[in-house]
Amino acid sequence: MSGLEVGGMTVLDGRGRAVIRDFSLQAAVGDVVAVVGPSGSGKSTLLRAILDALPAGLRRAEGAVCWEGRTILPGRAARRWRYRTAGIVGQDPAAALNPLQRVHSLVAEGAPEVSLARRALDDIGLDSAELWRRLPRQLSGGQAQRVALARALVGDRPLLVLDEPTTGLDPEALELVMRAIATRRGDGRSVTLLVSHDRDFVSKVSDRVISLGQAARPASARTCSTRSGAPVLSTSGLTISQGGAPLLHNGAFELRRHEFVAVLGTSGGGKSTMLRTLAGLHAADAGELRWRGDPLPGRVEHRSRTQLRAVQFVAQDPASALNPAHRVGSAIARAAQVLDGVSRAAARKRADELLSVVGLEGTAKRFPRELSGGQRQRVALARALAAKPDVLLADEITSALDEATAHDVLGLLDRLRADGLAVLLVTHDRTIADRADRTLRLHQRSLLPTISDRSEETRAR
Predict the structure, then answer these.
(1) Distance (Å, whole) CA 323 – CA 69
(2) Whose CA is closest to 395, among 324, 299, 318?
(3) How far is residue 273 from each of residues 133, 235, 238, measured CA to CA in Å?
(4) Which segments of 124-168 does DSSP mark as H helices, in order?
(5) Is the domain 233-323+385-460 a CATH 1.10.287.950 member?
(6) What's the fold here for domain 4-211?
(7) Are 142 and 168 in contact (CB under 8 A)?
(8) Looking at CB atoms within 10 Å, which of 91, 350, 395, 459 has the fewest?
(9) Which tens digit of pLDDT belongs to each residue from 242-271?
(10) Which is nearest to 31 in space by CA: 7, 6, 3, 9?
(11) Burial of residue 247 (number of CB atoms within 10 Å: 0-12, 13-18, 19+)
């Protein structure tokens, strides 16, 4: 059989435990094969094992990979094969882009002509003229995702490997990704292998779906909150730009205790940058931030320990947010100890409890590299919650989670909101936005309400 064949793949961790056991796969040329399953089930590890690119702490104990009828031996041969044959988009594309290379250099590396690199960016919904000379840090999460995809597509490699390619994309960008995959489907020369939690996306683009586990499809839920009292976080006249490009002009909103507000908008429109500004990680051009009515410094280094504790941020890219040298439990405990002032013993107990409630019991001694993308997202969330914040700024925190796990995480936030937590969450998922008390849309540099809050709806009825 021509194409890709994987036989008896078994991957062990540092303690000899099987992460992947006796996995086999056959994908003929022209096939699009999707791998699905719960967060932490080993999907990303499987892709990296096939490519012979496992991180430290994991090893391929058994298994063979064949391409076009030829066995690919691990080591140097596999590296040469990857370089010649595979276009790859990992789960954390922003972290994979060389921070010192500009967009044109990153994409043109795999293109025989510069014009093809420009076309690849335009085809995936990016303005090549605008982004051509930007560095990765000047891109939004969705833009970085698409730059990485354009880079993988531009060389028209026979093997395309995509790990959560739809994370952080708005519906328009998602449609472009689907079209890019569709052009390879049934072409008689290429194989596409992808991992995704988006079941609707998978059903539309793939010829075959392989499950590494079962994830129940939970019913959506909305919980009521009470918008009352003074705002816990507010802005006025907020003006933000990124790399010289204006993103928000004269924005204003209020967030109260118990409230869940979702922020929608196109990829690259400034949603993540707005959250980073509220968190003190990106300087605003103008405007005022207030916490409980008092001025909130615009830079994190100027905020008091109380203010740092009160406003916590969970980034879109957990790989870059977690210190790779710190074990999971220590990272969470440190947040409780430093920001909430609890004892070392109490901090470690809180870390264990939070890991348990986010479904990661027993992972305290692991390093971030030993976790899946979805697991790292939950660690970053647990670390933010360890400080017992008043406000949680959450950027696509369910994007790498299967539906059942995402449901559990949102249920946890609902319970914390009952105790007073306020949540401002950026998402492209309308089912998540439907759970919110209010939604805002960042569109053409304006922050606009899209629906009335639930209390107003109730009064209207």
Answers:
(1) 42
(2) 318
(3) 19, 15, 12
(4) 128-131, 141-154
(5) no
(6) Rossmann fold (3.40.50)
(7) yes
(8) 459
(9) 888 899 999 999 999 999 999 998 888 899
(10) 3
(11) buried
